[in-house]
Amino acid sequence: MVRPPSTLRSEQQQCHSPVQRHGACRTWAAGQGQLWQDQRVSSTLSSQALVEELQARSRAVDPLVNAICTPSPAALTDAARLDTERDQGRVRGPLHGVPVLIKDNIDTAGLATTAGSLALAGQPPPPQDAPLVQRLRAAGCVILGKANLSEWANFRGSHSSSGWSAYGGLTRNPYALNRSPGGSSSGSGAAVAAGLTDFAIGTETNGSIVCPAALNGVVGMKPTVGLIPQQGIVPISHSQDTAGPMTKTVLQSAALLTVLTGGGTDYTEHCRGADLTGVRIGVPRGPLWGYSPGLDEVTERALEILSRCGATLVDHLSLPSPGGDQDQLHVLSHEMKGDMAAYLATRAPGGPKTLDDLISFNRDHADVELQWFGQELFERSAATEGLDSPTYMAARVSALAGGRDGIDDLLRDNQLDALVSPSYSPAWSIDLVNGDNVLGGSSSHAALAGYPLLSVPSGLVTGLPVGLTFSGTGGSDATLIRLAHAFETARITAEGPFPTPEFTQWV
């Protein structure tokens, strides 16, 4: 069914950067790379002052949320140096002096990079930054520290709890402290929601950015795989892994993506306000809807907003099943074995060098590492036979068919620019004994395909944030940014800024 653009247009205004931080409205001037203090006082905030403010905020709030596992002792010094550069007329770019939090599976020189595991926590920090961190520093960003994550990015045991790691402890959702922050980029999403930073980096293999973005009420973008260098990231799968931005607004994600991809494309140019006239968006109901009535209700309102923006919605479509669970597991298991060994070879001598080493370490420290869930996914991966295995090759073909063919065929057959769906079920109760209870999500097709996703807050279900996911073919990152920014702009016009968390228990 084709739903034409709504004839009842709400007022559309270009909204480049409203964000809600600490209950006050701030604006971010992308063109000049300046952060402005609370508009009520309208004074410029230096990078050093902003870092001091965020560190004070962290001392007050992070004991409740536990999003940051390793603060950077150099953050204030770096901020002061960048302020001096600006005073001397050297501005590196739009993000000069902007504080950024890095997920703790991304190499950051001088800071522990642990993937949440004690096996890496006892090793020296990486000798150099991952390429994406090098790009952040070159752009003038201040590294605030490392964000906690689900240990080994939720690929050690099948009953893991998102947000828990032996190194970082348990991260909680700022909107409901007894509810999950999602994972595996748990700390990155929770930190942005809690006002500990406006800019964070997450990583995704299958849902690890868009899930915590949705559950924490922030923007999360998983770019096309390969758009951002994978080197220096603790791996699961080279065919699916990517880093990506997690921010308060779509514009901020676009600016961060510009830096992370090397600056060849300015993705902020695609944040063009709320007019989507001439855009065709597909709505694949199966199998991405129906697991949460409250989420479906919020998403129906989101579709109306997109229609009022001028988009033509092609409704009641369906994606094929994204391959069997065993096929997906075969791909990840086979790729992890070799990818992990290659990564561990870059770390200091004397530490673990293979999956077998990590498995042995966990057994030797079972009272901490294995206290809540096991390592059967590690053990399965260690037993694989390499990428020449017929099992792997058949599973990879199946994964691509279920992912790329499903998405591309739907786009082509219906002349669509992108797809839209509910992001993830509302945050589930934290249960360290039984693990996560995820009702459904939007990430599997794009994960298998290596295609981009962008989740943007869409509303609340009984006080819990939920999101709307835009997806498309490989390389459609700019299109998704345009659509998500238009939706964000129109939703804020219609409903107001997204509410800030109150750090209470959900009942």
Instruction: Output mean pLDDT.
Output: 91
Report the radius of gyration as a whole number of Å. Answer: 21 Å
Low-confidence runs: 7-43
Q: State the helix count.
A: 15
Number of domains: 1
CATH superfamily: Amidase signature (AS) domain
Structure explained in plain terms:
This protein is α+β, with helices and mostly antiparallel strands and 507 residues long. The chain has one domain (49-495): Alpha-Beta Complex (Amidase signature (AS) enzymes). The protein contains 15 helices and 17 strands. A hairpin with a 4-residue loop joins β3 and β4 (34-35). The two termini are 39 Å apart. Strands 1-14-13-15-17-16-11-12-10-6-7-5 form a 12-stranded mixed sheet, with helices on both faces. The protein has a 3-stranded antiparallel sheet with strand order 2-3-4, with no helix packed on it. The protein has helices at residues 47-65, 75-87, 118-121, 131-138, 186-193, 210-216, 250-260, 293-308, 325-344, 355-364, 366-369, 376-382, 390-413, 444-449, 477-495, and strands spanning 2-3, 18-21, 24-29, 34-35, 68-71, 99-103, 142-147, 164-165, 169-170, 199-204, 219-222, 242-247, 280-286, 312-318, 418-422, 453-461, 464-471. It is globular. α1 packs antiparallel against α2 (75-87), α8 crosses α15 and α9 (325-344) crosses α13.
Task: Give a concise summary.
The chain is α+β, with helices and mostly antiparallel strands. The protein has 15 helices and 17 strands.
Secondary-structure blueprint:
Blueprint: E1 2-3, E2 18-21, E3 24-29, E4 34-35, H1 47-65, E5 68-71, H2 75-87, E6 99-103, H3 118-121, H4 131-138, E7 142-147, E8 164-165, E9 169-170, H5 186-193, E10 199-204, H6 210-216, E11 219-222, E12 242-247, H7 250-260, E13 280-286, H8 293-308, E14 312-318, H9 325-344, H10 355-364, H11 366-369, H12 376-382, H13 390-413, E15 418-422, H14 444-449, E16 453-461, E17 464-471, H15 477-495
Parallel strand pairs: 6-7, 6-10, 13-14, 13-15
Antiparallel strand pairs: 1-14, 2-3, 3-4, 5-7, 8-9, 10-12, 11-12, 11-16, 15-17, 16-17
Domain Amidase: 50-480
Pfam families: Amidase (PF01425)
Enzyme class: hydrolase
